[in-house]
Amino acid sequence: MSKGLFISFEGPDGSGKTTQIKLLSEYLEAKGTECVLTREPGGTKVSEEIRGILLDRANAGMSYTAEALLYAAARAQLVAEVIKPALNDGKAVLCDRFVDSSAVYQGMARGLGVEEIYTLNEFALDGIRPELTIHLDLSAEEGLRRKTKQAELDRMESEPDSFHRLVAEGYRELAKLEPERIKTIDASLPVEEIQEMIRGFVDGLK
Ligand code: TMP
């Protein structure tokens, strides 16, 4: 068993995960817990290179299976190089997306199947699972409205609205399946209010 604390953050594109992760790390660090902030796909040299392939709009013809395997490959490297060592050192790992993103985007929205995705990822996870997952719930429309302020959309963001609706709905379904681990918060609430709720969930862990 690892000594650290592993918390993942999930939700549609533009749901404010990055801001909340940063605020939570400030809270934990102030209490003396060293934090490692990372993201998926990415967080290591190899995983960032895989991220480049996954999000490159030039790769529009990628098969859904290849996509799922590439996300799992990026995850395997992040687990081995960053997450596992940090947890063994007793640190808190705050991860922007983890395996639940694959369950929702590839398993549900692409239709590969949630069980199939979790099974595929067992090999990548090496027994590592988040103790707590914060799901920032945002309607697909609001998520895209926030994102369209960006100059250019990546391969996943440029999927049609119907895909993003499946993602938003998929997260709600997944949260219902594992209510003990996955805590849903309305992402349209003020940033400080969301952070208060997250801190409450984290404090309730021990
Ligand atoms: P982000 O860094 O903006 O969240 O970009 C990552 C994109 O990849 C986002 O659209 C969600 C998607 N994604 C998956 O489809 N499956 C996964 O397993 C992960 C981690 C992300």
Can you put this structure into words, describing what you see?
This protein is about 55% helix and about 15% strand. It is globular, with a radius of gyration of 16 Å. The chain is α/β, with parallel strands linked by helices and about 210 residues long. Strands 2-3-1-4-5 form a five-stranded parallel β-sheet, sandwiched between helices. The protein has helices at about 15-30, 45-55, 65-90, 100-110, 115-125, 140-145, 160-175, 190-205, and strands spanning about 5-10, 35-40, 90-95, 130-135, 180-185. α2 (about 45-55) packs antiparallel against α3, α3 crosses α5 and α4 (about 100-110) runs antiparallel to α5. The protein is built from eight helices and five strands, in the order βαβααβααβααβα. The structure holds thymidine-5'-phosphate (TMP). Thymidine-5'-phosphate binds near residues 71, 101 and 106. The site of thymidine-5'-phosphate has 12 residues, from α4.
Strand order of the largest sheet: 2-3-1-4-5
Bound ligands, named by name, code or SMILES: thymidine-5'-phosphate
Q: Number of DSSP helices? A: 8
In round numbers, the mean pLDDT is 95
User: What class do helices, strands and sheet pairing give?
Assistant: alpha/beta
Quantity of strands, as a count? 5
Strand content bin: 5-15%
- Poorly predicted regions are none
Shape: globular
Radius of gyration: 16 Å
Summarize the biggest pleated sheet: 5 strands, parallel
Secondary-structure element series: EHEHHEHHEHHEH
**Which percent range fits the helix content?**
40-55%
Distance between the termini: 16 Å
